[in-house]
Amino acid sequence: MNFLIENWFLIVAALVSGGMLLYPLLVSGAQGGGLSPAEAVQVVNREKGVLIDVSEPEEYAKGHPVGARNIPFGQIEGHKQLPSNKALPLVLVCPTGARAGRAAGMLRKLGYDKAQVLAGGLKAWREANLPVEKTA
What pLDDT is attached to residue 133? Predict the structure, then answer.
């Protein structure tokens, strides 16, 4: 017990460093992780997944993944472009991935259990050299 009292700073340092190592694992687990661009393409191609861009129309017009449907985050609940088959996988994308993460949570509550997020958003999509289109 005397060792613990005399070396409390070492114990605190060990606990803090351990917490810092575990933090990324806990955060990614809480957000449901996210798909890499390559994994997202596989979901769309192999599992007939639906790519949904939750950006605002102005952002969507500036650039979005080819074939993505635009359903703005604020209009996602009950939107007519959502697939009626809730068993289909959904891949959600936005410029950074933040809105897509919140949208995925909302869609899971609505019964779309296979709603997933493109990790890194449109930026990661572009960095993977995947096709992006603009609308007028």
Answer: 94
